[in-house]
Design a protein that fits this description.
Elements lengths: L2 H11 L3 H7 L16 H7 L15 H6 L16 H7 L15 H7 L15 H7 L26
The protein binds calcium ion (4 copies).
């Protein structure tokens, strides 16, 4: 947080923010000091730092975050363990903690090596979340190595 933003936050907390805004010579209406695409007033409304173009430090400028509807004051908008910029790289939805709808969060999937953007990572007909629930390997289309895909195997946990 810049010294000015800190001063402003303290002043707002003290209940005289409006006065400061009116009298702060640096706070020109509509000014965008940090050049992140958001005007000073908008940053105050959003709780972002008018002196920091990437207030939450997730690699995306505050203005870009507003445009793509992620939270410029939260590095991980959907709290799934993957930062907003990281989600862009994975092609997942930064506003949906389970982008592929397989019941596993995006961050957990990355930690397990499954695809956060594909419900059935190994293409065996059983979604990743269900594979884990059944004790199967979501990264192995034939978990018991009997030549039958898990999704077509009457007992995918025991070779038949
Ligand atoms: Ca950001
Ligand atoms: Ca996220
Ligand atoms: Ca998922
Ligand atoms: Ca599968």
């Amino acid at each position: 947080m810049s010294p000015r933003a800190l001063l402003l936050a303290l002043t707002l907390a003290a209940g005289c923010g409006e006065q400061l805004l009116e009298h702060d010579p640096l706070a020109e209406p509509g000014s965008d000091e940090d050049k992140d695409g958001l005007a000073f007033e908008a940053e105050l409304d959003l709780g972002t730092d008018p002196g920091d173009p990437d207030s939450d430090g997730d690699g995306l400028l505050d203005g870009a975050e507003v445009e793509q509807e992620t939270d410029p004051a939260d590095a991980d908008t959907d709290h799934d363990g993957l930062g907003d910029l990281v989600e862009q790289r994975f092609g997942t939805d930064p506003r949906n903690p389970d982008s592929d709808g397989d019941t596993l969060t995006d961050g957990f999937e990355v930690s397990q090596g499954t695809e956060p953007g594909r419900a059935d990572t190994d293409y065996d007909g059983i979604e990743d979340g269900l594979e884990l629930a059944l004790g199967l390997d979501p990264l192995d289309s034939d978990s018991d190595d009997d030549g039958m895909l898990d999704g077509e195997d009457p007992d995918p946990r025991q070779p038949s």
